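Budget justification aside, the reviewers requested a transparent look at the raw inputs and outputs of the sequence design task funded under Objective 1. We therefore reproduce one unedited record. The lines immediately below are the structure tokens for a 108-residue chain.
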């Protein structure tokens, strides 16, 4: 899967978070100590916007019911059966790129 240009690093300063929509996906981006992480913005519990949640280190609290997710692994620490999709990130020339799944894998 090719990496897709999504954002300039200047639009996501350290400690920042941003919600984007690309290829039909809602993705939450987080800059933690100049390392950028990307996860699905949709909480698997009740569809809450994870990008609007509070971040404590690498732990994100869903704003609806306070489920906890690790932004690096996508795993929930208080609901182990749940996780959110994570997306590989690379930064080149002050631009953030994400490795996203194909738009429609069933299409031939």
């Amino acid at each position: 899967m090719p990496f897709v240009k999504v954002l300039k690093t200047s639009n996501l300063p350290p400690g920042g978070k941003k919600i984007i929509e690309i290829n039909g996906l809602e993705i939450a981006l987080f800059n933690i100590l100049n390392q950028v992480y990307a996860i699905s913005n949709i909480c698997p519990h009740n569809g809450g916007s994870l990008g609007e949640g509070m971040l404590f280190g690498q732990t994100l609290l869903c704003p609806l019911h306070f489920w906890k997710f690790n932004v690096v692994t996508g795993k929930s620490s208080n609901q182990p059966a749940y996780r959110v999709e994570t997306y590989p990130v690379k930064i080149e020339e002050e631009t953030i790129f994400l490795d996203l799944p194909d738009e429609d894998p069933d299409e031939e």
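The beta strands are 3-8, 17-22, 25-32, 35-40, 54-56, 59-61, 68-70, 86-87, 89-92, 95-99. The chain has a mean pLDDT of 92. Computational costs for records of this kind are itemized in the attached budget.
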